């Protein structure tokens, strides 16, 4: 069942979990959005008047019903749906007291302040553990809670560079456009958020057995090194430094982009059977019998000669013709889409991967943004699917609602607003 097709009454897998989200930008909010998509009640805490930095990271900006740009960046919407938003001034002792009250009622806290940054407010793990021993406290930093770089701020681009990710991304030196490149999205931020959500789920399971919460120490650098995967394994076990090689693969061939009659396509051939079927379909069965191209190791060793032969043939058909030819032969082949083409793909449409959430009429009237579109959660639990409950919230949209749940009446909330506490 697609998330947007799930009944509104469906309870998510984590509907019994409350998350206090003190994080900003991407890694932390990505983690908490995953938990929110699974049904957790996530309360996002932001600075009064300012909010999360990504509310202002534009262009591109959200558009109103007439297609005109607003002052709200679209960046924020990719990682903050299904959350309730409140504003609290953490520098004010009254604001700190409110957050402590929320922590008492929460199962999980996610934060990405600098190491020790929340201790000054009495909101660090050691302080909150005394109040709520069951609290799972997930800290996300650039370099972790220990080590010589612990005090440094860390950003995705910096981590992509330091971890070696950029050194293996891009075209080889000496070729047109050669040089290190960052990945097109903030990969280490996104993976850190995903690993953090996984660690939180594990900690919840431990708490089910022991009754005790714990702190989770997530570092972008740790994650950046971990997701080097096979490239790291190759270095650690051979001492050889992996090199950039564009869209080709160090251990597989042919596994890259190829020119076609009207553009380019991607072939991802991972075994001898696929290679043989490609050769026969392309009218070159002799390639599969060529001693140079026997086995994956042979094809990698003689990659240059093999690719040159293949490119002469791939240029003779359009991309669509190659896909049609190879589709029923179990030879992985596909187009190299831009994002618009990707969202228009029949499989993407069939899976319901673009979803829309209507905003409350009063909010839509104030800024002209009637709906927010985003990518559906890929976590397809059959019995407890993710449910789209709330669009990304306006700044402080749920402050009154959440504070009322803490027992504050309207007059008390109004006084806090007047004092700039919320």
- Based on CA atoms alone, the radius of gyration comes out at 25 Å
The portion of residues forming beta strands comes to 5-15%
What best-fitting shape do the alpha-carbon axes yield?
Answer: elongated
Count the E strands. 13
Chain-wise SSE layout:
Elements: E1 18-21, H1 27-37, E2 41-46, E3 61-63, E4 69-73, E5 83-87, H2 93-104, E6 108-111, H3 125-131, E7 136-141, H4 156-163, H5 187-210, E8 215-219, H6 220-226, H7 229-238, E9 255-260, E10 263-268, H8 272-281, H9 295-301, H10 303-314, H11 319-326, E11 333-335, H12 339-343, H13 346-350, E12 354-358, H14 361-367, E13 371-375, H15 399-405, H16 410-418
Parallel strand pairs: 1-2, 1-6, 2-5, 6-7, 7-8
Antiparallel strand pairs: 3-4, 9-10, 10-11, 12-13
Helix pairs in contact: 1-5, 4-6, 5-6
Describe the fold and architecture:
With 422 residues, this protein is an alpha/beta fold. The chain has 2 domains: 3-227 and 351-418, Rossmann fold, CATH 3.40.50.10540; 255-338, 2-Layer Sandwich (formyl-coa transferase, domain 3). It is built from 16 helices and 13 strands. The protein has helices at residues 27-37, 93-104, 125-131, 156-163, 187-210, 220-226, 229-238, 272-281, 295-301, 303-314, 319-326, 339-343, 346-350, 361-367, 399-405, 410-418, and strands spanning 18-21, 41-46, 61-63, 69-73, 83-87, 108-111, 136-141, 215-219, 255-260, 263-268, 333-335, 354-358, 371-375. A 6-stranded parallel sheet has the order 5-2-1-6-7-8, sandwiched between helices. Helix 1 crosses helix 5, helix 4 (156-163) crosses helix 6 and helix 5 (187-210) crosses helix 6 (220-226). The two termini are 39 Å apart. The mean pLDDT is 95.
